Amino acid sequence: MYRSLLATLLLGLFPATQDMNTDGMTLENMAIAPPSSELLLEDRLSASGVVIFNRESGQLLFTKEHKIQRPMASLTKLMTALIIIENHELDEMVTIPQSVVDSIGHKAYLPPGKNFTVGDLMSALLVNSANDAALTLAQFHSGSTPAFVAEMNERALELGLRSTSFRNPSGLDHPAHWSTPQDIAWLSMFVLRYPEIADRLGKSGARIVSREGDTIQLYHTHALLHKPSDTTAEVLAGKTGTTADAGQCLMSIVESDNTQYVVVLFNSAERYQDMKTILSALSTTATPVAVQQIINP
What predicted TM-score, i.e. pTM, was given to this entire model? Predict the structure, then answer.
């Protein structure tokens, strides 16, 4: 379903329907509407790579090294979630494998041998950014992590994400695991068409319960999600990512003046301060739809 999509479909220019003929559609033939005004960012951002899109029109507001390949940490889990939601029902039961004990990085501490639904594991993946949930879902779907990674790379090519390479389902550092802010922004806009993904990216927390009664409380890792702001712009949803090589990464869906934007930061030293700068700019710009390089690279 939704294979080889036109970029205009990804960018929201046409409604998504299961009946739409998508043969031969890729991101390469995307056309961005011409800019009509300026997004002003007066302060310096710490992030090495930045892209800001208007979610409704697909227009590009701001870029900074948005086509440079870098590690993307747990923003990887957007692709993991996409493959699972395209192939499974939320009520399918999954047994937690013993191998999750050896997973490193952020975890939900899923108990091996216990059974959770795909929906619960998706919550652990997207709300809590749990690496053990990513490993569990990958092995459940493909039988092994390498097989799942192969499907991740195949799906990226189908979507036209030519500057993305996966080596694991969670985002752990690897020399051949990288993407670009532009690719992640496009991927984000696509996966948000699935309510099962969008809802979880926008939840501040969740509680999951195994079939055996084990309860795990999850908290969203995006510190600005639904938080009071000094600006009129608000973070509605998002995904974090942090590793030694990637630095602080962040994808945010922002709403300002009834318009939504996709913001992606790579290799930030202060991602939430960067986001506050962007929120302020989006709040004070009447109709921000143009590219303007104000921030020094």
Answer: 0.85
